Automatic annotation (TrEMBL):
Pfam family, one: YiiM_3-alpha
Entry protein name: Protein YiiM
PROSITE patterns per record: MOSC (PS51340)
PANTHER family (alphabetical): PROTEIN YIIM
Taxonomic lineage of the native organism: Bacteria, Bacillati, Actinomycetota, Thermoleophilia, Solirubrobacterales
A GO molecular-function descriptor: pyridoxal phosphate binding
Organism of provenance: Capillimicrobium parvum
Spans annotated as Disordered: 1-23
Domain MOSC span(s) in chain numbering: 3-137
Amino acid sequence: MKHEQKGPVAVGPLGLAGDEQGDQIRHGGPDKAILVYAEEHYPYWRQRLGRDVPVPGFGENLTVRGLTEEQACIGDVLQIGQVVAEVTQARQPCFKIAARYTLPKIAKWVQDAGFTGYYLRVLEPGSVQAGDSVERLVSPHPALPISEINRLLYRDRRDGAGMRRALAAEQFAAQQRAVFEQRLGGPLEDFEIRLYGSDEVLTNAADAG
């Protein structure tokens, strides 16, 4: 669980100082140094869950305004405080969100809503703090917003032309690149374990309706 930080926080190639990545294979590495979530989504979640959802509520490192999944594109270079970072991939929500809200299906709800968040790689380290502005410096792939990556990941999973367009962007992160490459040459991946975790959690999710 992450909490709002006061004052400047150092940011390096692997993320924010003090942010421990519990799963280095799925959640770590330079391509996932910073997880961004849009402030605009919080009213939706408060209404849907019928409860207060404090910020940060979805595991994000940075909560931003004016840069949703519809607006942030693969390869966008952002100036955030002293830090320069690049949009690399959509966040694929997992069952760990359920632990915070005790709602077994919430990762699936996040995925279906398209309010997933997205990751940045750090190009120039520095520090960030609450209130810093976010400026888009470069946008080489305006036709590849994170919402388009989400469409390909979750809805139109056999859209070969769309996946090839994403693969043509050199900034697209290796992990999601591998997902699309596998689909183009073989079977679709299974979402269940990522979304619900163990067989026990899967049973609870089914019981939740």
